[in-house]
């Protein structure tokens, strides 16, 4: 850490970690809902719907906090200047966390927009938009004042702008449910397969440049190609969500073809991450940081690339759409692409913010391997449940609950895996809050 | 490859995809007018959508396949369980799902809200969405007779029972829904002809019945499923 204003990012990371812990707890509760029969009295007061709204909104909130914290850490080093206004950064952190907490408490009392993942009520959306504008203003001003442009910065700012812009499409009330879903995906799909990929690409490139010592030009050249491919395949690839919503038939073609190409940039990102790590010029100080970088690249590829590709073609998606197959893909994709990226940022930046050059990574390793194994196996159990559902409910035409009975075993296994994930999460959160320097080997 | 070439790859990729996407968006808006019967999108339908959102239905159920996967899809719900079936479940979930391993919360909707919700579901059910979901597909149902013929040597009635979604509400040996009674011993209570008459028009036999009339079944299918059920003793 070389700039004073980078310190703010530490608080973003801490807030993100606590919200992540809460998200995992809610995840366990959802798995219990699937595995056991809850009495009507509990369902009436705290329904699955409420718990799910909290689980998914916490996901979005903690990841955005992680991205913002990451941005506030990276931008001073890239621009070689202090952040334009640390006061704005503080205000914006408090505003976002307070909005999140109010929203979550509101869900419990039925205050909701009622649209999956976008449940935050419209008045609170206004606060989110103001916070996002302040954030962009702050980051943008820092970059413009410094006027030392790099591809990493440009990609980061572009991704964040795109991210904020897309959020606006999720705010209005649409009378027509077809149009509603059409624009809902502008937020959800174009976030995770567009804007967030830009942010990820930029952050990953930054950390690789800093830790491997590979020439900036080489890393940035590949960054251009990757984000170009991400946007080329990802934008029209949104069409794979438009097969069954009442949109024109040509989306089966456009969505199918473009989304079949979507794994390419992820594959490229995986290969070049591994290549950069192999060809590193600097001595490895913290090998665990590399484990996280490569783990992120590989599980990003499996979760988002492979599991996405498996059911993206209309012929398959006809049977798997809206089944637990989607859940398998969603969990491993978010974990591989974005949770691990955030963990990478935490383990890269938090030791530096504490002035630790080489950190003790024992607990971190336990946490990484426990969480990654548990989540990978959860993708398998959800996947099996999804295939059973697709076959029994969709192909044989048996009732929804009949299919659910056959799937129940796999939900129970998922619950056990969730407990392992929870334990791994505790290790990581505890570790990051109490980082210590590694003992010098004699 | 130089950095300049890489920049061009980025620019061309992004701009071409964006342009194509925006053009398709414009065209989709144009076509949705017909595909989604926008002329039938009445105030009641819009009010029903607001009810659907107010009670956060979509965080358990899917509609058009989107939402949470904890409860059945709502796209063709009117066709599947009928408007009476919807009224009963929403009004008294504690009764409708008393024996189910998964419960639905009692959210105390007013009668007016329920009617608006039904208007919304009715409109959604008529959207031309490439025949999804498969379990409610009209093509699949006409195929059910083929299956019945194919499995004639075993039990054509059982095939009808399975294909026509009887187990969405009823159960056999604990497998199936719990909205209607279990049918394991129905043959003890009712004769084949009585079962046949009941399935065709439940209200004609019992005015308080909540089971929707099965008008889609052919006479042949009806005979076979009634014979199958009458033999369950």
Describe this protein's structure:
The complex is a heterodimer of chains A (about 450) and B (about 230). Chain A is an all-alpha fold and about 450 residues long. Chain A is built from 15 helices and no strands. Chain A has helices spanning about 10-35, 40-45, 50-80, 85-110, 120-145, 150-165, 175-210, 215-235, 250-260, 265-280, 285-310, 315-320, 325-355, 360-395, 400-435. The longest helix of chain A has about 35 residues, at about 175-210. Chain B has 3 domains: about 1-35; about 40-125, Cytochrome Bc1 Complex, Chain D, domain 2 (Orthogonal Bundle); about 135-230, Cytochrome Bc1 Complex, Chain D, domain 2. Chain B has helices spanning about 5-35, 45-55, 75-90, 95, 110-125, 140-150, 155-165, 185-190, 190-200, 200-205, 220-230; strands at about 60-65, 65, 170, 175. A two-stranded antiparallel ribbon of chain B has the order 1-2. Chain B has a two-stranded antiparallel ribbon with strand order 3-4. In chain B, a hairpin with a 2-residue loop joins strand 3 and strand 4 (about 175). Chains A and B meet through helix 2, helix 3, helix 7, helix 8 and helix 9 of A and helix 1, helix 2, strand 1, strand 2 and strand 4 of B.
What would the keywords be for this entry?
heterodimer, A: 442 residues, mainly alpha, B: 233 residues, Cytochrome Bc1 Complex, Chain D, domain 2, two-stranded antiparallel ribbon, elongated
Task: Describe the secondary structure blueprint for this structure.
The complex is a heterodimer of chains A (442) and B (233).
Chain A: H1 8-35, H2 40-45, H3 48-79, H4 86-108, H5 122-146, H6 151-167, H7 177-212, H8 216-237, H9 250-260, H10 263-278, H11 287-310, H12 314-320, H13 324-353, H14 362-395, H15 400-433
Chain B: H1 3-35, H2 43-54, E1 62-63, E2 66-67, H3 77-91, H4 93-96, H5 111-125, H6 138-150, H7 156-163, E3 171-172, E4 175-176, H8 186-189, H9 192-200, H10 202-205, H11 219-230
Antiparallel strand pairs in B: 1-2, 3-4
């Amino acid at each position: 850490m070389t700039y004073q204003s980078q310190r703010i990012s530490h608080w973003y990371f801490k807030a993100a970690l606590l919200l992540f812990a809460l998200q995992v707890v809610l995840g366990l509760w959802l798995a219990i809902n699937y595995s056991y029969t809850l009495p009507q009295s509990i369902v009436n007061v705290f329904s699955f719907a409420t718990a799910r709204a909290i689980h998914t909104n916490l996901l979005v909130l903690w990841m955005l906090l992680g991205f913002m914290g990451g941005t506030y850490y990276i931008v001073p080093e890239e621009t070689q200047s202090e952040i334009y206004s640390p006061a704005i950064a503080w205000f914006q952190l408090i505003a976002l966390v307070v909005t999140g907490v109010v929203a979550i408490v509101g869900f419990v009392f039925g205050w909701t927009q009622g649209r999956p993942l976008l449940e935050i009520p419209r008045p609170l959306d206004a606060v989110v938009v103001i916070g996002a504008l302040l954030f962009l203003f702050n980051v943008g001003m820092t970059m413009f004042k410094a006027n030392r442009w790099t591809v990493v910065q440009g990609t980061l700012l572009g991704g964040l702008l795109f991210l904020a812009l897309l959020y606006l499409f999720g705010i209005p009330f649409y009378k027509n449910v077809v149009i509603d879903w059409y624009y809902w995906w502008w937020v959800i799909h174009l976030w995770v397969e567009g804007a967030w990929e830009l942010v990820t690409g930029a952050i990953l490139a930054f950390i690789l440049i800093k830790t491997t010592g590979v020439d900036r030009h080489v890393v940035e050249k590949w960054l251009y190609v990757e984000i170009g491919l991400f946007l080329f395949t990802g934008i029209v690839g949104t069409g794979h969500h438009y097969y069954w919503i009442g949109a024109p038939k040509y989306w089966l073609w456009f969505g199918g073809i473009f989304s079949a190409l979507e794994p390419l940039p992820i594959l490229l990102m995986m290969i070049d991450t591994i290549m950069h790590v192999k060809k590193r010029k600097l001595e490895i100080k913290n090998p665990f940081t590399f484990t996280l970088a490569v783990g992120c690249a590989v599980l990003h590829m499996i979760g988002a690339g492979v599991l996405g590709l498996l059911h993206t073609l209309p012929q398959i998606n006809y049977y798997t759409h809206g089944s637990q197959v989607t859940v398998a893909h969603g969990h491993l994709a978010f974990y591989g692409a974005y949770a691990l990226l955030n963990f990478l940022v935490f383990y890269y930046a938090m030791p530096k913010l504490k002035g630790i050059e080489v950190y003790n990574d024992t607990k971190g390793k336990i946490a990484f391997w426990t969480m990654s194994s548990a989540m990978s196996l959860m993708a398998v159990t959800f996947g099996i449940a999804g295939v059973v559902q697709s076959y029994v409910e969709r192909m044989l035409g048996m009732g929804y609950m009949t299919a659910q009975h056959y799937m129940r075993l796999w939900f129970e296994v998922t619950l056990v895996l969730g407990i392992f994930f929870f334990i791994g999460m505790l290790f990581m959160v505890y570790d990051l809050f109490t980082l210590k320097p590694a003992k010098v080997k004699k | 490859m130089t950095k300049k070439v890489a920049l061009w790859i980025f620019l061309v990729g992004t701009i071409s995809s964006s342009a194509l996407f925006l053009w398709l968006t414009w065209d989709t808006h144009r076509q949705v007018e017909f595909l989604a019967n926008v002329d039938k999108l009445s105030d009641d339908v819009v009010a029903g959508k607001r009810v659907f959102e107010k009670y956060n239905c979509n965080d358990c159920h899917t509609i058009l396949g989107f939402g949470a996967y904890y409860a059945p899809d709502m796209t063709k719900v009117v066709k599947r369980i009928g408007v009476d079936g919807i009224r009963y479940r929403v009004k008294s979930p504690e009764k409708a799902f008393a024996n189910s391993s998964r419960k639905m919360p009692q959210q105390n909707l007013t009668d007016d809200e329920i009617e608006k919700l039904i208007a919304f579901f009715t409109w959604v059910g008529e959207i031309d969405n490439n025949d999804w979901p498969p379990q409610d597909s009209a093509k699949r149902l006409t195929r059910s007779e083929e299956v019945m013929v194919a499995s004639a040597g075993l039990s054509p009635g059982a095939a009808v029972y399975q294909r026509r979604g009887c187990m969405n509400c009823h159960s056999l040996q604990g497998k199936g829904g719990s909205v209607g009674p279990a049918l394991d011993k129905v043959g003890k209570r009712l004769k084949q002809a009585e079962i046949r008459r009941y399935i065709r028009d439940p209200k004609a036999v019992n005015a308080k019945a909540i089971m929707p009339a099965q008008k889609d079944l052919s006479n042949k299918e009806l005979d076979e499923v009634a014979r199958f059920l009458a033999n369950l003793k």
